[in-house]
Amino acid sequence: MYLHTMTLQALGPFAGTHTIDFAELGASGIFLLEGPTGAGKSTLIDALVFALYGKVASKDASDERLRSAHASPADETVVDLVFECGSGIYRVRRTPAYQRPKQRGSGTTLQQASVRLWRLSSPDAPEDGELLSARLDEAGLELQRIVGLDRHQFVQTVVLPQGEFAGFLRAKPEDRRGLLQRVFGTAVYEQVEQRLVRMRAEVGRAVEDRREAVARSTAHLLGAAGLVEEEATALQAAGGSLEDPDGEGGLLTLGRAHADALEERARRARTVADQAKTACAGTQQALDDGRRQLDLLRRRTVLRTELASLETRAEEHQQEADRCSGGRRAQAVHPLITGLEQARRALTTAQEAERATALGAEAELQALVVDVTDPSVRRKTLGVERDRCTTLRGSLDRLVTIEHGLPARRAEVTAAHAARVAQEAERDRLAQQVAARPALRKALEEELAEARSVAAQLGGATQRIELAQGRLRAAREVVDLAATLATAEQAVAEAAASATAAVEKAARTQQARIAGIAGELARGLEPGAPCAVCGSTEHPAPAPLDPEHVTPEAVEAAEARRLAAQQHLEAASTARSQAREQLGARSAAAEGLDVQQAQAALDAVRAEVATAQAATDRTVVLERKVQEHDGETRRLEAHVHELGTQIATHVAEAASLSTQIAADEAEVHAAREGAPTVHERVAALDDRVRSLTAWIDALAEVEDRLTQEADRADELSMGLADHGFTDADAARAAHLPAAELTALDAGVSRYRSALERVTTGLAEPEVQDLPEQLEINLDTLLEAHQVADTAATQAAAEAARLEDRATSTARALAELVRAVEAYREVALEAEPVVRMANLASANGGDNTKRLTLGTFVLVRRFEDVVAAANARLVAMSSGRFELVRSEEREAVRTLRTGLAMKVIDHRTETERDPRTLSGGETFYVSLCLALGLADVVTAEAGGIDLGTLFVDEGFGSLDPETLDVVLAELGRLRDGGRIVGVVSHVEQLKQSIAERIEVRRLPSGSSTLTVRA
Fold it and tell me: How confident is the model at residue 413 (pLDDT cuts 50, 70, 90)?
């Protein structure tokens, strides 16, 4: 992965906002992160790890260090990181959980942690990304997927914080396995191995299932064929071996032989059954023919008797048929006769209604048609009069409405006058209130100015609170740091004593070894061989070896203890220096005050803040009152103006309304024409129109009934002629009631149907061909058929039994063939799967090294990492050290992973455990290993791109020559496109590396940073 930018705010010692452009900073391939101890260099590493994983880099550090103690309460603690991986460009913005002051009231509240993750199209457009997640758990999983490492693996390969740099070098093989698997993406080989093992189990079960299926099919064949014991035993024995089931004596060969024999027996039985069935069919046909002839004789006798009865009723039938025909013709004409009678009655009713309506009309209307007899002419004359009245009545509707509204309009004029008088009084009252408001506003302004003067002191008092709180925290920390310094002083004294004792012990051991070296050399002399000291081949008086002579191993052990004691003293001295530096910084921050004095100063400033805050609150209230006062003044002025406008409008409207009322009253009076009101004149016209409408409707009804009466008479005349009647009376005489006609028609139909049925039956060829005398013996025919049927049934049952057995045997044989073929196929497919699974899981003799597939791949990758590390280690150690992979187990109970590591010391040509290296040696060996891991991972297509590497310790443990070699090796990384950030305060690094981030402590106790690229 590659870093683009990181912005942090209110984080650790950094109270402000700072942005680092890693793309510009790392242009040369290496940059320096430098500053005094405790200034905040490691905090930048923590910020990077926190942005990605929500926790700081070091496993021993607390996340509470993220919230800056120097930041303003309103400033949010946040890290905003833009980075790039193989899957794209991403931006993550993360805030930790911390206590912040409440927005209302006193005390603090927990600010919850948050995170937002975006995918970007370009690192230059961080605001235009696609939001992927805003949930802590979801974003954490997604970021780990994107980076490809968890936090522990990240700080072992990309970010190497203080105390964790040598973690990969000193890790157990099992721990290296998890890291390498994630870094190289080799989990797929573990999955392949597990999949092959599962496939081996699956094919094993499949082979066994197919073998059991063959056994079941063999048992099924035995049951279906019904074999004797000897045959069944032979078939079962053949089923035990499936090597050649089609050979002589094989399972399928025996099965096919039994199936063929059963099929031949079934064929012969079916031939016998078919012959018996044919004989039975002949006897059945003879029996059926005898029964049919007897039935025909009985039927002929019945038909002849029924025909004689019908012939005696022939004349009666003809009379009933004639009556039925006349009744049906009369039935067709009867509705026409009834219709004419109804039309004549309706005409009479309509004429009587018209005469009654005419008598009820006004004499003036009767006079209009007194000499007219034609209903059509009378109707048209009355219609003209009705239209005239309707038109006149419509012209008066508007005046009726005007007449009805005159009283209300007169009252409206009176009410408008009263309302105008009231509005004038209200306008005068409000005008007086408006005149008095400027004085009230001036009083509010004076009170507001006084409150603002007091409130202006709030900002300064608030800042003084923050300073006072900082002094109080510093005073409390001074107490703790003084105790820490005392402890550190004691630790330095103890470490110095131990180091002195170790130096003296190492010197004594070395002197003792030198004193007895002659005896050691003499012990290795051989007769005739030259002496290693003088070269003589004669050894007349070799020095004896002291039994308590010091061995080289004892010297090395004493030297190792001396180095360990010296390192312990250096660490204790560093801790004491840091404690002194921190105590001095916090004492300066406390400004010489103790805890009690700092607390008193804080209480005094808080009282000032409370007074200023109260004045601030009062200012808000007064400002709101001034605004409300001005708003009310504007509202009153607008209301006064609105009332003046309304009064002028009402005066004009009242004058116009009075003029219109006078004109409408004159028009209404003219329209009455002698009636008390226009409304009453309209009512009289409505009555005349209703009377005319009723008379006209009655005349129209008379006209309609006359037309209908003529139409019915014409229809009846044509109907009588069509159905053969001379007049209506003849039709009435022939008419029959419906029930009687129906019964008569049914009797005629029954007679005709019976006659036709009997005649047709006697005319059938089978009946006509019957002789008059015929004898048939059914008992003899039935007995012969029963004998033949019994024989056919027995033969068919035997044939069916043998055919069923042959069919079942054939099906069982086919099932057995399929089962054997399935077994062959599965067994053939299982062979390569089992072999591959045994190789991948380290089972069987083919895998001689007993390494699983996943372990084998990791071992090869690990060897590449070691080789890449050695390429740099040769230069950094001047050829002294070399890393080698070891096959040793960490413990008796652990698996051999092939991922153990040893260090070859070419000075002594011995293998050493990495944990025996000194601090400086551990540093540059670990650095080479980390760089080698990055080289190999970058070269792997399926691995993680480790484009950026941070180193946060160890350079101070190197001598100048080794430091130059290490820096030169780091400088070569730019050729591969990678960037290394070196975190150190070593002065030589400042002179060697131009691009840097400078971290400095401010007088307030907080820190700031400057990027020099």
Answer: confident
Q: What are phi and psi of 243, to 5 degrees?
A: -65, -45
Q: Which two tokens stand for residue 594?
A: 């103790």
**Token output for 185:** 């993406």
Residue 64 Cα distances to 36, 106, 210, 800, angstroms: 22, 22, 65, 93
pLDDT in tens, 817-834: 887 788 788 888 888 878
C-alpha dihedral (962, 966, 968, 974), degrees to nearest 10 = 180
Helix (H, G, I), strand (E, B) or coil at 21: strand
The predicted pLDDT at position 14 comes to 93
Over residues 38-57, the mean pLDDT reads 89
pLDDT digit string, tens, across residues 896-918:
567 888 999 898 888 888 888 87
Torsion angle defined by CA atoms of residues 244, 249, 255 and 260, in that order, rounded to the nearest 10 degrees: 130
Give pLDDT tens digits for 311-340. Answer: 788 888 887 787 887 788 888 888 888 888
Q: Are strands 98-101 and 88-95 parallel, antiparallel or unpaired?
A: unpaired
Q: Give CA separation, 552 vs 257, 362, 555, 563, 921, in Å.
A: 90, 159, 5, 16, 22
- Residue 959's CB: how many other CB atoms inside 10 A? 9
Residue 382 near residue 368, CB atoms below 8 Å: yes
Question: C-alpha angle 432/436/437, rounded to 5°?
Answer: 120
DSSP letters spanning 850-870: ---HHHHHHHHHHHHHHHHHH
Rounded Cα distance between 573 and 577, Å, is 6
Alpha-carbon gap, residue 154 to 488, rounded angstroms:
33
Element of type H or E holding 750: helix 738-763
Pair of tokens at residue 81:
């990181």
Rounded CA gap, 370 and 374, in Å? 11
What would the pLDDT profile of 922-938 be if each residue is shown by its tens digit?
A: 777 877 887 787 777 66
Check if the beta carbon of residue 909 is closer than 8 Å to that of residue 915. Answer: no
- HSE-up of residue 954 (Cα within 13 Å, Cβ side): 26
Is-contact 305 697, C-beta < 8 A?
no
Beta pairing partners, 109 = 100
C-alpha 457/C-alpha 612 separation (Å) is: 6
Residues 6+ apart with CB under 8 A from 147: 1, 52, 85, 154, 944
In whole angstroms, give the CA distance from residue 185 to residue 535: 61
CB-based contact 361:389 (threshold 8 Å)? no
The count of other CB atoms within 10 Å of the CB of residue 614 is 14
Closest CA to 281 of 792, 796, 797: 792
- Write down the residue that tokens 């180193």 correspond to: 951
The pair of three-digit structure tokens given for residue 347, joined into one six-digit string: 């005409």
Q: Say how far apart CA 40 and CA 42 lie, in whole Å.
A: 6
Give the angle 19-22-25 at the CA atoms, nearest 5°.
105
Let me know: does 393 contact 693? Beta carbons within 8 Å.
no
Q: What are the φ/ψ torsions at residue 143 (nearest 5 degrees)?
A: -65, -40
Model pLDDT for residues 356-383, shown as the tens digit of each residue: 888 888 787 778 888 888 888 888 888 8
